[in-house]
UniProtKB/TrEMBL annotation:
Species of origin: Octactis speculum
Lineage, broadest ranks: Eukaryota, Sar, Stramenopiles, Ochrophyta, Dictyochophyceae
GO MF terms, alphabetically ordered: ATP-dependent diacylglycerol kinase activity
Signal peptide residue numbers: 1-19
InterPro entries registered for this protein in UniProt: Dgk1-like (IPR037997)
Protein name: Dolichol kinase
Annotated keywords: Membrane, Signal, Transmembrane, Transmembrane helix
PANTHER family noted in UniProt: CTP-DEPENDENT DIACYLGLYCEROL KINASE 1
Transmembrane segments: 48-66, 108-130, 142-162
Length: 188
């Protein structure tokens, strides 16, 4: 099942690589469709940046953290729900509330949406996979110290902070921070 599931992000990686490397040679109709689907700038070479990195992270999660660990679920939830909501909510409602002294264009509203979305989806996926018997997710305490929900909140806050770092691609920093903290906080 793991191999079959990993074929989906692998196929997407190949498609993005082809689009980014050969985009100028495609028909205008295919070029417009591709640009509408994955680009913010209108350039097909953007397929080799954010969307490509995002898909690599999905491929890694599928290959290495399939269903037996909450680590993959948590870093995908932080990247997909947290970062995704930060972008959508931040662009729509965060215009007048930017982080003071922050070089990036990130908003406080977007960061709040990141924490709320990343936390909620991480918890929901961990609960669901645990309930389905894929792994045991500690609901009450992790190593007898922190409640598991507090750990998820900490991970979400750290990932939201990692997204604020200018000059680094959040498609890499967010899942990296989430994976490291998840590995540390939810280790057996």
């Amino acid at each position: 099942a793991r191999v079959c599931a990993s074929l989906v992000p692998l196929a997407s990686l190949l498609r993005l690589a082809h689009a980014g490397l050969r985009g100028k040679n495609q028909s205008p109709e295919a070029q417009v469709e591709l640009v509408k689907a994955i680009s913010r700038t209108g350039h097909s070479n953007e397929a080799l940046r954010g969307p490509f990195l995002y898909t690599i992270v999905l491929f890694i999660a599928t290959c290495f953290f399939w269903r037996e660990s909450p680590i993959g679920l948590i870093f995908i939830a932080q990247m997909a729900a947290g970062d995704g909501l930060a972008d959508l909510i931040g662009r729509h409602w965060g215009g007048g509330c930017k982080w003071p002294g922050c070089i990036s264009d990130k908003s406080m509203v977007g960061s709040l949406a990141f924490v709320a979305g990343g936390f909620t989806i991480s918890w929901a996926l961990c609960w669901w996979f645990s309930h389905m018997g894929c792994f045991t997710f500690p609901v009450k305490h992790v190593h007898g110290t922190l409640p598991a929900l507090s750990c998820l909140a900490l991970i979400s806050l750290a990932c939201a902070a990692a997204e604020l770092v200018p000059g680094l691609d959040d498609n890499l920093t967010v899942p990296f921070v989430a994976a490291c903290l998840s590995k540390f906080l939810f280790r057996p």
